[in-house]
Each structure stands twice: as structure tokens, then as C-alpha cells.
Specification:
The chain is of the alpha+beta class and 78 residues long. Helices cover 19% and strands 29% of the residues. It has 1 helix and 5 strands, in the order E-E-E-E-E-H. The strands form 2 sheets. A 3-stranded antiparallel β-sheet has the order 3-4-5, with helices on one face. Strands 1-2 form a two-stranded antiparallel sheet. Strand 4 and strand 5 form a beta hairpin. The longest helix has 15 residues.
């Protein structure tokens, strides 16, 4: 879940897993897979960062490099 700010200053929390796309028109519009759209004050980059942070919190392996097997057969430290 990510918290964003509507144009009237009110905060809403969206399910980050249901975001279909985020666009700048120049208002930032978040479209959900349900077909609902929300205009928010945050820019696209801020929304994307909130989604990334959400995924880091729920899945600690998100965004991490997979371990590599070295020539001697040991795993490289991430």
C-alpha cells in the first residue's frame, strides 16, 4: 500500500499491486487495474519510488541482485 495526496490535500492509500500505469498529463494520474483513476500531487518519479519502497518492505529480495556462483563454487556476497 502506498500513501498519496489528492489534489484537495487529502491522503489516500492505494494498493500498489493494482496500479496499471502512472502518467503525467502534466497532472499525475494513477490508473488502477479496476479502471479507477486518481489524480495526485506527487510526481511520477515519487509514485514509482513509493511503489519500489513498498515492494522492498513486503519482499526484502526485491531489487537485489541474485547471487552469483564464483569459479570456486562459492556464492558471491550480494
Amino acid at each position: 500500500m502506498i500513501e498519496v495526496t489528492r489534489l484537495n490535500g487529502g491522503k489516500i492509500v492505494l494498493n500498489a499491486d493494482l496500479i496499471e500505469y502512472v502518467e503525467s498529463t502534466p497532472d499525475t494520474i494513477i490508473a488502477l487495474t479496476s479502471g479507477k483513476k486518481y489524480i495526485v500531487l506527487e510526481d511520477v518519479a515519487a509514485v514509482v519510488e513509493k511503489v519500489k519502497e513498498y515492494h522492498r518492505q513486503v519482499s526484502p529480495l526485491f531489487g537485489r541482485r541474485p547471487p552469483r556462483i564464483q569459479d570456486d563454487g562459492t556464492l558471491e556476497e550480494a
